[in-house]
Amino acid sequence: MMGDEYDTSCNTWGATMAGNAPRADSVIIAGAGPAGLAAALALAGRGVRSVVLDTGNGTPRAGSRACGLEASTLAFVYDLTGTRLDGAAEPWGVQRIRRRGRDVPQPAAEPEAPVRYGLSQQRLERALLDAAHASPLVTTAWRHRIESVEQDETSVTVLARGPGGPVRFRAQWLVGCDGARSVVRRAVDVRFPGRPRVDRLLCADVKVRLPRRITATALVPPDPSLADEPASPDVGGPATPWLFVDPPFHRGGTVLAQPLPDDVWRLTWQLPMAHGVAKAAEETRVIPVTGDPADPKRIAARVRSVLRTLDALSPEPDTSEDPAHDLLWSGEYEVHQRLARRFRVGRVLLAGDAAHLVHPSAADAVELGLQDVRNLAWKLAFTLRGYAPIRLLETYHGERRGAARRRLALGEDALHFLAPASPAQKVGRRLTLMGARGKGTTLRRLDPRGPAANTSGPDYTGSPLLTPGPGVGEWIRDVEVFRADGAEGWLSECLDRGLVVLLIAPGIEVWHGGGWREAGLMPRLRGRLDKLAAPAELVVTPDYPGATAHTILLIRPDGYIAAHLPPDHLDILEQSIDRARGAGH
Ligand SMILES: Cc1cc2nc3c(=O)[nH]c(=O)nc-3n(C[C@H](O)[C@H](O)[C@H](O)COP(=O)(O)OP(=O)(O)OC[C@H]3O[C@@H](n4cnc5c(N)ncnc54)[C@H](O)[C@@H]3O)c2cc1C
To answer: Is 449 in the pocket of ligand 1 (CB under 6 A)?
Structure first.
């Protein structure tokens, strides 16, 4: 046995523990990026201890990086960290599109478009890091480089090189969140096919005082030849992100300008692909701001031209001088579209960039990684606690790989528009912008509030864990509920204990005290839930969209609806619960 050995069940460095079986609540997490830290915190929230290994030193990484999150993902981050990031995030309104200096009228926003927020990845990572350091169930091992992974029937062993030499870590499960060049993925021999270098982006965060909300009347008159649809009315409060297609200041490419909090704008330029620039095809990297095209002088000129345009689009433009600004950060990254063949190999699971790389127009990478974690954490906890068979974890592979594959397909669609590679795709883009072809669909897909942005959408429809029915596979609508202990709250607050059985009982709110708990179906239902193999909490609400009186919705711990049982189907509740925990037939 080489060097020290660490058993994740005891959280202390110790002498060799050969022969000791790892305890039933131990997980190793490879990588302390957003996916890895979120995994550790999500497991801790369910009482599961983990150790996180990373080559870094435990401080947030330089650079702002990814910047868009959905409201439901922000709520998940709040559950994990106890920190409300809404204040540190800017809600986005409808994205404005301009082509060659002219406004492109857009299709009306989706009636129930998800609200997205602009938030820098660094800010998110800081909140996750602080929470991980404060959690008694999360141990961090900084400056540890994972070198190899071995597994057998009951455990996984990771060999890492730390400041003091090689160390072995052993646990029941390993979650590989070690990024695009994952050592864990390679160690378990999982292929990562796809399309390398599909796009190349230069990002900059700029602090500048500019109007953040552009109203419809403030827009310059649209090009009449393009005005086949009325401009969509702007939403009151949220800030306006912009997409400039082939603008005068960046011929042939696209530029995004997205508002972040504190008067910061994230500017993203699409650059021509420079073959042979990246060291490895699957690498994403931050490059120092030297050398073309990230030369500081060139970035400064690029920034000025975008800011001048944004200023000119504002209600009271000041064209006398360039808006005063500070360049806070810039970085270049190459985008790849890749998908791991397996998200689970025995006791090893992959999440985040280690499992998928998707163009940011189809899904924000951080958001997808957090969705992986939300799906995986309850399944790992249920398996470790004996509430579910190990095959529940196989559905992590099916559900999350399917979701990522759909994102990749959307990414390909978006790329035809954003980076047309063939003359036919170039013509397609022109026709789309002129309104002659599929404009509604394509432009909606590029809208950060559109359906493509909705990563918590009905992605799991068809999963073996679900009992088919209306709304099944979708994320819950957050409604007010009454809990069996008499407390009132929100449905989303009930998800940390296990499955949730939501009974729709109109008139429940008129009962005083806890009288409703002994009324109607309640005692019998409670009795049935008490006998289950997995914890399930009974909660009641007077009304739920799309559900009639006395219907039961079975909700998974990650907030997805697993069954919708009308009153005459209540006899299959136990069967649906077994199915939801992977024990169905
Ligand atoms: C300049 C730049 C701008 C970006 N902008 C966007 C954007 O606008 N939209 C978007 O969607 N994405 C963007 N990205 C990509 C986004 O930042 C990543 O997709 C995201 O960080 C992935 O999170 P993750 O937790 O899966 O992996 P990572 O953040 O890559 O974290 C992996 C962790 O694993 C650790 N690690 C790796 N190997 C080992 C090892 N052998 N042993 C121990 N630890 C290891 C690393 O130190 C790291 O902390 C950008 C990236 C860059 C560089």
So the answer is: no
C-alpha span between 408 and 124 (Å, rounded): 24
3-state secondary structure of 182: coil
- 43 plus 125 within the same structural domain: yes
What ipTM goes with this model?
0.98
Instruction: Please give the residue range of the domain that contains residue 173.
Output: 4-86+119-192+339-410
What's residue 358's pLDDT? 93
Q: Is residue 379 part of a domain?
A: yes
Query: What is the secondary structure of 328-363 as a DSSP string?
Result: EEEEEEEEEEEE-S-SEETTEEE-GGGTEE--TTT-
Final residue in a domain of this structure, among 410, 435, 458: 410
User: Nearest C-alpha to atom 6 of ligand 1 is from which residue?
Assistant: 66
- Distances in Å between the Cα of 113 and the Cα atoms of 182, 235, 319, 364, 409 are 34, 12, 35, 16, 20
484, 383: one domain: no
| Chain centre distance of CA 373 | 9
Confidence of residue 488 (pLDDT cuts 50, 70, 90): confident
182 Cα nearest atom in ligand 1: 38
Dist CA 269 CA 253 (whole Å):
7
Name the residue at shortest CA distance from atom 35 of ligand 1: 31
Q: Tokens for 533, please give them.
A: 């193999």
Residues in the chain: 585
Q: Is residue 532 part of a domain?
A: yes
Sequence-separated (6 or more) residues with CB below 8 Å from residue 122: 60, 61, 62, 63, 64, 65
Other Cβ atoms less than 10 A from the Cβ of 515: the count is: 9
**Pocket of ligand 1 contains residue 63 by CB under 6 Å:** yes
For ligand 1, is residue 178 a contact (CB within 6 Å)?
yes
Strand pairing report for 536-541 and 480-483:
antiparallel
How, if at all, do strands 536-541 and 499-504 pair?
parallel
* Final residue before a domain boundary, out of 410, 426, 461: 410
With b for 16 or more beta-carbon neighbours within 10 A and e for fewer, the 108-140 pattern comes to ebeeebbbbbbbbbbbbbbbbbebbeebebbbb
Q: Which of 99-113, 204-218, 323-337, 446-460 has the lowest mean pLDDT?
A: 446-460
Q: How far is the CA of 60 from the centre of ligand 1 (A)?
A: 12
Same domain, 385 and 494: no
Q: Is 47 inside any structural domain? A: yes
Please tell me whether residues 401 and 529 are part of one structural domain: no
Per-residue confidence (pLDDT) for residue 267, from 0 to 100: 95
Q: Is residue 314 included in any domain, yes or no?
A: no
Mean pLDDT, all residues of the chain: 82
pLDDT digits (tens, 9 = 90+) for 242-293: 999 889 889 888 999 999 988 999 999 998 875 433 333 333 333 333 345 5
CATH of the domain at 361: 3.50.50.60
